[in-house]
Amino acid sequence: MTTTRRRVLLIEDETLIAMLLEDILDELGYEVAGVAAEFDDGMRLAETGTFDLAILDVNVGGREIFPIAEKLAERNIPFMFSTGYGVVGLPMEWQSRPVLAKPFRPDDLEQALNRFFPV
Fold first, then answer.
1. Do residues 12 and 37 make contact, with C-beta atoms less than 8 angstroms apart?
2. Does domain 7-89+99-112 have CATH number 3.30.413.10?
3. What is the pLDDT confidence band of residue 3, given thresholds at 50, 70 and 90?
4. CA-to-CA distance for 45 and 107, rounded, in angstroms?
5. Per-residue b or e along 92-106, where b marks 16 or more CB atoms closer than 10 Å to that residue's CB
6. CA-CA distance, 79 to 24, in Å (whole number)?
C-alpha cells in the first residue's frame, strides 16, 4: 500500500531557512512541492501549483506576501505565515491564521503542521 505524502509549497527568500524547512519537512514525511525565493515566482506557484499547504515568509524580497495569501485563500488552499514578528506583526485580517515564529525548532514546525493535518 502506497501512501501519498502531503505536498508543501515554501515561499521563503532566505536560502538557509528554506533549506532547513525542506529538510525538516522531508524528515516529517512531507514532500516539498516547490520553493519560491521571489514574490513573482511565489505568486505564479500560488495561482497554478498543486500542493496541500503553503508556508509563507511574510516579507519576500522586500515585498509583503499578503497578495499571495489572498490568492491561496481564494483557492481554498491552507497556509501559514512564517515571521520573526509573530502574530502581532500581521495585519488584523490575517491574525487568525497560523504563524510559525522565527526562529523555530523542528518541533515547532511539526506542531504547526499538525494543526492542518492531525496525526
1. yes
2. no
3. low
4. 27
5. eebeeebbbebebee
6. 17
Cα–Cα distance, 66 to 89 (Å, whole number): 12
- Dig out the grid coordinates for 56 from the structure: 509563507
Report how far apart, in Å, the C-alpha atoms of 90 and of each of 18, 26, 28, 94 are.
21, 28, 27, 6
Mean pLDDT of 51-67: 97
The label of the residue with cell 532547513 reads 20
Label residue 28 exposed, middle or buried (CB < 10 Å: 0-12, 13-18, 19+): middle
Residue 1: the pLDDT is 44
Residues pairing with 76 in the sheet:
none
Q: Residue ranges per domain, the chain? A: 7-89+99-112
Interatomic CA distance for residues 19 and 3, integer angstroms: 24
Pairing of strands 59-60, 63-64: antiparallel
